[in-house]
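Section 5.1 Outputs to date
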Amino acid sequence: MLTKLGERFTDLFQKYMPSAFVFAILLTLITALAAYFWVDTKPLDIIKSWYDGFFNLLSFGMQIVLIIVTGFSIALSPAIRRGIDKLTTFIKTPKQVYAFVLIIGSLLSFVSFGWIVITCVLARELAMRVKGVNYPFLIACAYFSFGGWVSGLSSSIPLLLNTENNFLIEEGILASKISTSFTLGSILNIAMILVFMVVAPILFLWLVPKKTDGKELKDLLQSNYQSNESSIKDEAESFKLPVKAISDTLNNTSILSLIIFTMGLSYVIYHFVTFGFDVNLNIMIFIFLMLGLLLHKTPMQYSIAMKRASSNISGILFQYPFYAGIMGIMLYTGIGEKLTAMLVSVMTIDNYPFFAYITGGLVNFAIPSAGGEFAVVGPSIIQAVQDIATGLPQNEVTAMVSRASMSIAYGESLSNMLQPFFILLVLPVMGAGVKLQARDIMGYLVLPFVIFFVIQTLMVLYVPF
């Protein structure tokens, strides 16, 4: 019954859900109309707010591009390919593929949300090797595994709360930073990790589509798709001149790569010794760059790998500014503050985690960035929680603020299952050579979203912190 219901949702999404870009355009118009009718903003002011926000995610967008490209290039290295080949000797059936991708994807995302790229490469390679894998459903598995990143080491909200002189402290909302022992190390967060590791694989195995006809990767690949069958090493050799040249020696020497890798490794060691296990986008990109250079051995081979890895990232390059524009409307017209105030007005000491969770999920549709969203809704929710907690010991107040903040993060992350923004992380890798859009994937995520919504709601309300 659940399998048929999942297939029904998939059919509905295919019929009615537009492309990710059209979704962004429609969301822009909806947000603009809300600003006009709800907060009585003049049309020109709405357009100015849209433009003012349009380029606010350029830095973030470039980080995402580099995470995808550098992570993909690592997966193209001979060493990783050999590892994948060995791995396939143990994974023989489609159900094993689905479960393995969900578990490994969750583990990788707990380290850094950028590591979903590695999950995608692994999933695609398994789909090429194991018969009977429903490829759109496998993409849904890979994308869902990304959802646990807010419980992990790169979760932006708890890292922000633990940052000295963060904007909440500078604005007088918080008196001091909040240790990650209150957020990432809480009983609630550890329980959330276990739910992703245990419940998600069981749930998706329960929802495996019965039909795979025409849905395998080999069936979906376009006839004119070039899979770069020649090895990177062979392509590097083809660039050499017919005579011995110093330029070819420099292009194909491993000495230069080793020198740069050694310099990079020295900084990575310094970073973690100095700042502890501070995993952020910049250090992850740096590690990926250095590791890719080492694995590909020569500058020429690494350049070719990066070129191949960059072949399918156009969606990110032009869609991120549109979401930044939506964020600008939310920020500069006051919609975000008004929505938050409406939800905050019904908070009590018993239900505040639920309304923080709902706020995170709703606002994420317009501001699909945990850090950007928290900048809009975080201050109001934290102040409301502090008002509710008046008279309680400071330790309990801190725990309540931490619980509300993590609830925002959980809601933001889960609503990504219905919001196609972050599927732009997945499709450049898994969608290469196939005509698949977000609408072909998102239907498989509706039931997992509903079930996890119920589970997470009960958890944020009742699991001890």
